[in-house]
Design a protein that fits this description.
- The protein is of the alpha/beta class.
- It is about 55% helix and about 10% strand.
- The protein has helices at about 25-40, 55-60, 65-75, 85-95, 110-115, 135-140, 160-170, 185-200, 200-215, 220-250, 255-265, 270-285, 285-295, 300-310, 315-325; strands spanning about 5, 20-25, 40-45, 65, 75-80, 105, 125-130, 150-155, 180.
- Helix 1 packs parallel to helix 6 (about 135-140), helix 3 (about 65-75) packs across helix 4 and helix 8 (about 185-200) runs antiparallel to helix 12 (about 270-285).
- The chain is globular and about 65 Å long.
Length: about 350
Amino acid sequence: MARMYYEKDCDLSRLDGKKIAIIGYGSQGHAHALNLRDSGMDVIVGLRKGGKSWPVAEKDGFRVVTVAEAAQEADILMILINDENQAAMYQKDIAPYIHEGQAIAFAHGFNIRYKRIVPPAGVDVFMAAPKGPGHTVRSTYVAGKGVPCLVAVEQDASGHCKDIALAYIAGIGGARAGIMETTMHDETETDLFGEQAVLCGGVVELMKLGFETLVEAGYEPENAYFECIHEMKLIIDLINKGGIAAMNYSISDTAEFGEYVSGPRILPYEETKANMKAVLKDIQDGTFADRWISENMTGRCFFNSKRDQLAKHQMEIVGRQLREQMLWKNDTDLDTAST
């Protein structure tokens, strides 16, 4: 079983006297920076000069510098910009200035796993990966709780890299919930697979097909949206709290019986498993990573067309209209603000 760590296993004093640079001030970046500062750490923010996040970070009270300046000044560099932009930024603004004794950190292992970034031998390399979006990392910290995190040490030049990584995670609140030890290799492959086969790719296609099937059968699209999309969160919340058994306990016996007789008809076991194995193979051998990097180098034509197509789908249009009529339409608990 994977090893777990908690607050008693983390020593925040490992970060005493160390300057931490958060590279990027988006979803994860703002949460890490604010939480670490509230935990008493010395934090600066490294950004592209003239970027839209620069004044936001300054408004939040941080000293903001260029990425190159952060690389020269900081003891720990946490890189939190988008995966597809990290390698170019690293080569231009970090690699020329990185020096022995520093630590480079990531919240996802993509660029290390696929060797898009290869740090020099004299630096620590670790991963501190919250298993939740940035606004949740921040809101749970403010509430005195935390988001579970993964920790991994890729390169232990100092001999104390794990201690530093655990202290960092404690600083963002993760030790309050629990820290699971893994490797950047395993985190990358399982994370990409989970996103593609289940959490994003699989679930979105399932909801979309369910919505289309009901609408094409003559049912009101609003009914189809509530039954196939809106209620997804209610089901997932139950599973998150107590597993599938808790979900089955809370739903009707009719619904549970339907789960057993119809689930395998929607997702035939052998065919679905074969398709999932093919997705995993593309992740393991680098095919997906190469395709994603290529997509970004050639203007994102496929990506943008699919995003536009989804925005115009009736499911999304009906969803927007319904949410506008709900009492919770003004809920701001999203990654749309810096705090």
